[in-house]
Amino acid sequence: MSLSLNKNPMPEQEPKIRAKNFSEVSLGYTEELAKAEAARCLQCKTAPCRKGCPVQIDIPAFIKEIKEGNMDEAIAKIKEVNSLPAVCGRVCPQEEQCEKYCVLAKRGEAVGIGRLERYVADTARNKGEEIIAIDYAPDAQKVAVIGSGPAGLAVAGDLAKKGYKVTIFEALHLPGGVLMYGIPEFRLPKDEVVQVEINNLRKLGVEIVVNAVIGSTFTVDELMEEEGFDAVFIGTGAGLPYFMGVPGENLNGVYSANEFLTRCNLMKAYRFPECGTPIHVGKKVAVVGGGNVAMDGARTALRLGADRSYIVYRRSEAELPARLEEIHHAKEEGIDFQFLTAPTAVIGNKEGWVTGLQCVRMELGEPDASGRRRPIEIPNSEFVLEVDTVIIAIGQGPNPLVQSTTKGLETNKKGNIAAHEETGVTSKPGVFAGGDIVTGAATVILAMGAGKKAAAAIDSYLQEKKAKQ
Amino acid sequence: MYKILVKQQLAPSVQLFEVEAPLIAKKAKPGQFVILRVNDHGERIPLTIADFNREKGSVTLIFQEVGASTLELGRLQQGEFLLDLVGPLGKPTHIEKFGTVVCVGGGIGIAPVYPIARGLKEAGNEVISIIGARSEEILIYEEEMAAVSDQLIITTDDGSKGIKALVTQPLKELLDSDKTISLVVAIGPVIMMKFVAETTRPYGVPTVVSLNPIMVDGTGMCGGCRVSVGQENKFACVDGPEFDAHKVDFESLMARQRMYKPHEKQHSEHIAGKREEGCKCHSH
Ligand SMILES: Cc1cc2nc3c(=O)[nH]c(=O)nc-3n(C[C@H](O)[C@H](O)[C@H](O)COP(=O)(O)OP(=O)(O)OC[C@H]3O[C@@H](n4cnc5c(N)ncnc54)[C@H](O)[C@@H]3O)c2cc1C
Ligand SMILES: Cc1cc2nc3c(=O)[nH]c(=O)nc-3n(C[C@H](O)[C@H](O)[C@H](O)COP(=O)(O)OP(=O)(O)OC[C@H]3O[C@@H](n4cnc5c(N)ncnc54)[C@H](O)[C@@H]3O)c2cc1C
Ligand code: SF4
Ligand code: SF4
Ligand code: FES
Q1: A208: closest CA among A254, A273, A148?
Q2: What pLDDT shows up at residue B165?
Q3: Burial of B63 (0-12, 13-18, 19+ CB in 10 A)
Q4: What is the C-alpha to C-alpha distance for residues A81 and A154, in angstroms, rounded to an integer?
């Protein structure tokens, strides 16, 4: 049997049409496509693909179940280690992870592992998963989870299944972290995917308290000393937006990507005025940065009605840190990439509104500490990009609220919580941490993986604690 | 869900809500605020905690109906619920014994200045308060302010009550008198706070203002509330809302507050329309 060197294409909305709506871009494999794609997998004994997956899903095993039409077995295989496959299948940077190591990638395209994972998860969800509520022991120990992003959700799921009473505290009015407020609807549906997963956790018996800012409504010490929690997991993410520090950044029309995306995703500003939160888009939008966040900002701006949406990135296309698929989709939708371009000032009018982004052109020099070639300014290359909105997507840092209100919790130079990589153990007894708050902005699957490891460590810690009592 | 225990009209388009929120009441300190949502379609609205009752487990919010969201809020009745309420947010006012302090409240800003005046009084300060409004009928919290102040000065723009002047006039007289003023706290419209800052600046009297830029999350995540203070960008929701008045760039704050002017009108019209046709989408 000769197999295709290429992946079975993903059915998608037409670029012209989708650039004007918020429905999901990729429609998902049909059964036929999924089987055909599963047939490409060689079922390698050594399964090199697994080592690229941060949670080491048994990839050949679940693909084999698809081939044989055993969908219940397929989802069970995945869920052994990944509780959010519908999310990861959609947003993992597969070309850097599992698919990078697939043997087929040597000669053609890797097996569409992410697409198959998504297919399995969507099929299971559409069928309706039966969730059996946990019957807690009367003396079940209590765990508090701070933050409801992928890290917190993973910890909560794993510990609940082990019989611990878990309460998640979330500062916003909806749980999900970046999955709700950051990643747009057209990449990750909120009601159909994210909230379904979260509701499954609730059905399992996890309590979710929204509108609770830890460090203010409660401190970590209060949770442990007054509220009776035996352990605490901190998964507060990398929520603090960085600005460029160039003149004009406070002009009207300049947003952090966090604000722009939160208004749109969490607050549903794309349905203004039916939903009360407004958003300003204008005719021409410049997004500064080159990661997933930048792609999301630029593509959201198009969907909100911008005629022109630029990505302004100081390195070249090869260095773009975003997922390949997002770059590809962005190009198809007509995003205008300005590579080797760095902003030097935001220009405004008398009334305080943005009228342009002043930039310089760059060229690549010697590799820097990160191994990437460093961009160097080309003299006298200034120009002004005429825009009425600027979105800054140059990264996020740790929000200091929990760290600054918790006694004995050590942080590193950047303000991230210092935690052991394999266990999430922090300098404070009974307190664990993981996800972006420890690593800095990373990925969904890494945050989940950290959550899983911490859940295992919390389990041992609590067993020991109980034995001592 | 957060129950509205008491609803009271304080002045035309100024309402007081006492809301059941035991966790927030337990922690609230003068100078802090909450963010609420009326319903599923609603904006996140920041309001200062004007008072709190730890025994009863309630917080008091006082708000002016200025646009669509606050109008919707004002339509809620006693016994009904707010969908979301989060807090206490922001840094509390720094309270200690300073000596003689002047608390200035303008318009709706009298509400947030009240718990601060009370806190300063309890800490043993001599509290002189100046409260001002356009006219007598929209002056709020006069009795409350009188109860926590050693001296209360009232100003109105039209002279219908107290002195016919802006709050800065009696403030300047106090600064010129032989009293040593150790601190001025001013909350009100941005333009008022700006003029208070200009009034105290030549005297070098430390002056604190509470800023109200447009906010979304209130936790330091969006940066929408950034204000320029002493050439540095600060997030009002976590670094403030109170700042050294002499360092605040009031001009850029005023410009930023105008960001959604066209949207505000559109939103108001939408809400008004919905109301006429019997409000379907906002009824849950
Ligand atoms: C726009 C955008 C696009 C992205 N795209 C991708 C992608 O395609 N693929 C990918 O793998 N990764 C992507 N990422 C990165 C990924 O989303 C994050 O790495 C991941 O969500 C981190 O998970 P977390 O659980 O550590 O934190 P978060 O998801 O950030 O969740 C933290 C939660 O904690 C809450 N919180 C914070 N402080 C407190 C407090 N004091 N009290 C209570 N709650 C608190 C926050 O409100 C938030 O809900 C993207 C990120 C963004 C912003
Ligand atoms: C920390 C803080 C404390 C506040 N305390 C009080 C208070 O105790 N009582 C009170 O009456 N008002 C208070 N405000 C202002 C109040 O939040 C706004 O009046 C309200 O959000 C207006 O919404 P609207 O839709 O009714 O009006 P709109 O028509 O939308 O706007 C009217 C004006 O309100 C401001 N505004 C609009 N949206 C927001 C927003 N999301 N955040 C902040 N300001 C906004 C803008 O300057 C705008 O021009 C406070 C604001 C902040 C930031
Ligand atoms: S979780 Fe992510 S990395 Fe792992 S197999 Fe799935 S798509 Fe690949
Ligand atoms: S490396 Fe590729 S072909 Fe081999 S088992 Fe993994 S997915 Fe299948
Ligand atoms: S309101 Fe978002 S950072 Fe302050």
Answers
A1: A148
A2: 85
A3: buried
A4: 10
pLDDT at position A271 is 87
Which residue do the tokens 């510990």 mark?
A: A159
Take atom 1 of ligand 3 and give the residue whose Cα is closest: A88
Compute the distance between CA of residue A211 and CA of residue B1 in angstroms, rounded to an integer. Answer: 10
Contact B256 A239 (CB under 8 A): no
**Helix, strand, coil proportions of chain A in percent (round to 5)?**
40, 20, 45
pLDDT confidence of residue A372? 82
Give mean pLDDT, residues A50-72.
94
Are residue A252 and residue A387 in the same domain, yes or no?
yes
The CATH number of whichever domain residue B222 belongs to comes to: 3.40.50.80
Please say whether the beta carbons of A112 and A92 come within 8 A.
no
B109 and B232 part of one domain: yes
**Can you spell out the DSSP letters for A250-263?**
TSBTEEEHHHHHHH
With a cut of 80, say whether residue A42 has pLDDT above it.
yes
**What backbone torsions phi and psi does residue A102 show, to the nearest 5 degrees?**
-65, 135
Specify if B164 maps to a domain: yes
Instruction: Tell which of A371, A392, A413 closes a domain.
Output: A392
Kind and range of the H or E element at A347?
strand A341-348
pLDDT for res B264? 86
Q: Verify whether the Cβ–Cβ distance B258 to A352 is below 8 Å.
A: yes
| Full residue range of the structural domain in which residue A244 is found | 240-392
Tell me what pLDDT residue A383 has.
96
The closest of A454, A443, A437 to A182, measured between CA atoms, is A443
**What are the residue ranges in chain B where pLDDT is below 50?**
278-284
Summarised one tens digit per residue, pLDDT across range A257-269 is: 999 999 999 999 9
Q: Number of H helices and number of E strands within chain A?
A: 16, 16
Res A28: pLDDT? 95
B139 contact partners, CB below 8 Å, separation of at least 6: B11, B110, B131, B132, B133, B154, B156, B161
Mutate to test the interface with B, among A167, A169, A170, A172 (most CBs of B within 10 A): A172
* B65 belongs to a structural domain: yes
Distance of CA A208 to the CA centre of its chain: 20
Count CB neighbours of B230 within 10 A.
11
Interchain contact, A274 vs B270, CB within 8 Å: yes
CATH value at residue A21: 1.10.1060.10
Alpha carbon distance A319, A303 (integer Å): 26
Most A CBs within 10 Å, among B43, B85, B216, B222, to test the A interface: B222
Residue B198 lies in domain: 100-257
Q: A247 — contact with chain B (CB < 8 Å)?
A: no
CA B207, B208, B212, B217: dihedral to nearest 10 degrees?
Answer: 150
Query: What is residue B110's predicted lDDT score, i.e. its pLDDT?
Result: 94
State the CATH number of the domain containing residue A214.
3.50.50.60
pLDDT in tens, A146-180: 999 999 999 999 999 999 999 999 999 999 999 99
Residues whose CB falls within 8 Å of the CB of residue B61, separated by 6 or more in sequence, listed in order: B16, B17, B18, B19, B34, B36, B47, B48, B49, B50
